[in-house]
Amino acid sequence: VAVAYFSVRMSVGIIRSTLDKAGEEMTFKTIYEDGGDGMLSYFLASVVYGLIIAGGLILLIIPGIYFAFKYYLMPVVVITENLSIGDAMKRSAELTKGRFGVLFLLLLVVFAFNIVTESIGTAIPLFSLAGSIVLSAMGYIGWAVIYKKFSTVKEN
User: Fold this and answer.
1) Which of 70, 88, 72 has its CA nearest to residue 80?
2) I want to staple 45 with a disulfide (CB 3.0 to 4.6 A). Which of 75, 89, 126, 136 is the partner?
């Protein structure tokens, strides 16, 4: 339970710090402090997102992939815009509409980096742990940057 709490708090903190403190120095303390608000909403949105994708994958693979891209930004939207899960789903669908190619390429790069990290980690176990921590942080930062870019473009 403590590890899950810490993980969710740090996830929310990294996303918030990336969006709110762009260009400023981010420390462990500021990330931890920024992660306090919205933890439950983020956790619930992440669970719902995972269940939607799993349901889509069980139906057939294509719906799972479709839902993964359509609702990709839902957990970020729920904490940054203080929306309900239903409204965050609608907002994520709005922000990602017509951007399948861009999201696909970005996630392909993340997937490739993950494969390289895990491959090296097989030979050097300590690298696997360090690589996983760095990859997770990069993923949350990337998520926040994609949200910021997509929301800025849609508003203009």
Assistant:
1) 88
2) 75
